[in-house]
Design a protein that fits this description.
The chain is of the alpha/beta class. It contains 23 helices and 29 strands. It is globular and about 75 Å long.
């Protein structure tokens, strides 16, 4: 076996886990609006259980939705009527050989006010609006309300055991109710439920006692933030004192996360730039002070990282969150030594963005995630010849789908390398995880029956000569034509072109002077950081305000990107500005009523791109079926392109099979 520690069984209290791989709780938005388990949710978890995951901690279940619901469609376990769906879910997980664990949660001050039946949220202390200091937005819980809430946790645990759950986890991380009582940043009480550390621990301790009473000899896990990474919050030093107290109260395992929302959300859900396994030192420190198994989580993508963490004593169990969204078969593939076929998670947070939009769970690199009931690619019932134009993430995924269905598939790419826009996306600093995904796609193509032709030309006659049944246009995007006086091919280039051709692209030396980057969008900010890392001084000219820089970027990544970029001394940011003229190494920028001059050696245009539909439109009257996908269809993120490719090829295959069946039947 390649990973002996990763696939070694482990006992927590009286429960044997088949391996050290845990799926942590992640909101799926697949439940019903009434908090019930759905068929789609069962299929989602069943796929991860069948994929070899040792224990699955089902997404957070609210113990009292009226005052604590944190998201639409959040699961509930408040009465006997809720048990049936959970029982079906537990059975599906257990039938696949995995352990089913229930996580109990109450949002407290972090609950979503629009979903509550109470006038305000509730928590350990009053909170007033920053905009209106007279407006109460979170009400301090009374002694009787606290006692009633302890009972809510106990009652939900009892119902969970009736549903068949084999273990229970308490969500004491990320700023929810249990955390709010524990943390000095949110608990300002001076009674038995606060005042000092012992008082702040009284509510969590009592909840532990009540839930232990409810679940008997089954394992009880506590998830916590080892460091809240915000002013006045809990630190790792605090948690080194607190964790042994929780263990003494009855906890059987500690699940180590970090951060609190929204103040340090980038420590709850890491941006792409976070290094692999960065939380391991935190779990290691808590493991030294707690004589119970420790679960670590966060930025563990490769089985080698997980195996080394176990071997080095950083943790006893490895929780894989977004990793299992990307590939539910991660454990099975690792055990079989098929690591190169694991769909990599790139930490792009496409899944998180969907959650914020209150959509069901999605993954940029795995379009079947959240659609387990209806995403299988069927076999084509007759012969089919397919051509795919373009090898970006949309084009490659479309080609793989069509080939898997049995189509004779040819992929044409105009460049001498595969990846299309993915090459550009992976070029800036801290985005190497996207290169891992590109290499994975290339390996999948090499293992498939797809015929790949590089340095190809997209010509009408050659396409028609193949007599295809379907042509997929994954032609991506093209530069918007921007004319600026004095700019030409010798002193300027497009940002997309620059990132696509690094490090070969010909630029003046850093000693020649600053490079002017026009455009403060995501690409403009990324190319600016790229150039700074290459040793250049950069002038970033944005028509928008500072607070609108990279405004279309994913929220967590955007915050991290701007934090890095704006503290670089080699960068000069000029907002509300436009280039008027470029003459003899001098840029004239219009800044309101003022015109300013900067010495500039070169100019990079990052002023947006548009869908490339030219060839698609030209072939409108042909007999073959046409599909327009990815950026050629609608400009978007990698996940949008992959999802578009999957859905449109699936629709084509399904429709073609239906037409074939009708012909045979007639």
């Amino acid at each position: 076996m390649n990973y002996p520690n990763l696939f070694k069984p482990l006992r927590i209290r009286n429960l044997q886990l088949p391996n050290r791989i845990v799926m942590p709780p992640m909101s799926t938005q697949l439940g019903s609006s009434a908090g019930e388990v759905t068929d789609a949710q069962i299929a989602f978890y069943k796929a991860r259980a069948a994929g070899g995951t040792g224990m699955i901690i089902v997404e957070f279940c609210c113990v009292e939705r009226a005052s604590g619901q944190s998201e639409p469609n959040q699961l509930a376990l408040e009465s006997e009527k809720d048990i049936r769906g959970h029982r079906r879910l537990v059975s599906a997980i257990k039938e696949c050989g995995s352990v089913a664990c229930l996580q109990l949660q109450h949002g407290g001050a972090a609950a979503k006010r629009s979903l509550l039946q109470t006038a305000t949220t509730i928590g350990p202390s009053n909170i007033y609006s920053r905009k209106d200091p007279e407006h109460l937005i979170c009400k301090e819980m009374s002694h009787s309300e606290i006692e009633a809430m302890i009972e809510c946790f106990g009652r939900s645990a009892e119902l969970g055991i009736k549903a068949g759950y084999q273990a229970v986890e308490l969500h004491g991380a990320h700023g929810y109710l249990l955390t709010q009582f524990m943390s000095p940043r949110s608990n300002k009480r001076n009674d038995v439920w606060g005042g000092n550390e012992a008082g702040r621990l009284e509510f969590p301790r009592r909840v532990v006692h009540r839930v232990r009473q409810a679940i008997g000899n089954r394992p009880l896990i506590y998830r916590l933030s080892a460091d809240e990474f915000c002013e006045g919050g809990l630190t790792i030093e605090d948690m080194e004192r607190i964790c042994p107290i929780l263990v003494d109260a009855g906890i059987d395992a500690i699940h180590v996360s970090t951060g609190v929302g929204p103040e340090s959300f980038d420590k709850v859900l890491d941006p792409m730039s976070a290094p692999d396994g960065w939380r391991l030192p935190y779990s290691r420190r808590l493991r030294k002070v707690c004589n119970v198994p420790i679960i670590t989580v966060g930025q563990i993508r490769h089985p080698d990282t997980a195996e080394q963490a176990l071997r080095d004593g950083d943790a006893d169990l490895i929780a894989l969150g977004r990793t299992l969204l990307a590939d539910p078969e991660w454990a099975n593939k690792a055990k079989a030594g098929s690591v190169e076929n694991i769909i990599p998670c790139t930490s792009c947070n496409f899944c998180v963005a969907n959650g914020f939009a209150e959509n069901s769970i999605r993954c940029a690199n795995n379009p079947t995630t959240g659609r387990e009931l209806k995403s299988d690619i069927p076999k084509l019932q007759g012969a089919c010849r397919a051509i795919v134009l373009g090898s970006g993430p949309a084009g490659i995924n479309a080609a793989l789908n069509l080939a898997a269905a049995g189509a004779d598939t040819t992929l044409l790419e105009t460049q001498n390398k595969l990846g299309g826009g993915l090459i550009v996306s992976a070029a800036p600093p801290f985005k190497d995880k996207l290169e891992r995904y590109r290499q994975y796609l290339i390996r999948q193509l090499q293992a498939s029956n797809v015929t790949v032709k590089l340095n190809a030309t997209f010509e009408f006659d050659s396409i028609k000569a193949i007599k295809p049944d379907i042509v997929v246009f994954a032609t991506g995007s093209r530069t918007r034509s921007q004319l600026f006086k004095g700019l030409d091919a010798h002193n300027s280039c497009d940002a997309f072109e620059l990132l696509n051709t690094l490090p070969e692209h010909s630029l003046p030396s850093p000693e020649a002077g600053p490079i002017l980057v026009l455009g403060g969008g995501e690409t403009g900010c990324e190319v600016s950081e790229t150039l700074v890392e290459m040793g250049y001084r950069v002038i970033l000219s944005s028509r928008s305000a500072r607070q609108q820089l990279a405004r279309s970027a994913e929220m967590i990544y955007r915050g991290d990107l701007l934090k890095r970029l704006l503290r670089k001394p080699q960068l000069e940011l000029i907002c509300h500005s436009e280039l008027k003229e470029f003459t003899n190494g001098s840029a004239q920028l219009q800044l309101g009523e003022e015109r300013i001059t900067r010495a500039v050696a070169y100019c990079v245009l990052a002023q947006g791109r548009t869908s490339d539909k030219e060839l698609y439109d030209a072939l409108v009257n042909e007999t073959f079926h046409r599909i327009l996908i990815g950026d050629a269809n609608t400009m978007g993120r990698i996940g949008d392109a992959v999802d578009d490719a999957h859905q449109q090829t699936l629709n084509f295959i399904t429709a073609r099979n239906g037409a074939t069946s009708n012909v045979v039947a007639s």
